[in-house]
Amino acid sequence: MTSIPHPNSARWLLEVTAASASADPTAFQKQRQLLCSVAGFDPASRTWFVRIGVLDIRALEILQRLYEAAQRFGAEVRVQAIVAPDTWKGPCFTDVGELATLAAAQADRSRPLGQLPVS
Which residues pair with 13 in a beta bridge? Predict the structure, then answer.
């Protein structure tokens, strides 16, 4: 699932969550080992979460691990653009067009990410 934030705010983040798949303790431990260095875990909702404010090597590593967890363990990964909270001290996206393009490309599964439609 993707969504595009309201265009009047200047600071955006990508919030990525992965719902932990039901698994036996051994499989969950493997999932935890894969994700614990790139995402936080909320035991109440059994959800891994991370916020990304810049698309760099670290962000790509985070996304790759979350999608690997989806492939290996059946976790459901969601990406959503959100307004950066006032308490956020890390980097943020500031160009709404860039973020909107990314969110639209992510939502268009028939086209590879980064390949824009021909106008």
Answer: 82
* pLDDT in the model for residue 41: 92
Per this entry, what is the length of the chain? 119
DSSP 111: S
Q: How is residue 98 written in tokens?
A: 């860039």
3-state secondary structure string, 11-72? CEEEEEEEECCCCCHHHHHHHHHHHCCCCEEECCCCEEEEEECCCCHHHHHHHHHHHHHHHH
Tell me the two tokens of residue 74. 């059946």
Integer-rounded Cα Rg, in Å, for the chain is 15
Burial class (CB in 10 A: 0-12, 13-18, 19+), 84: buried
pTM over 0.85, yes/no: no
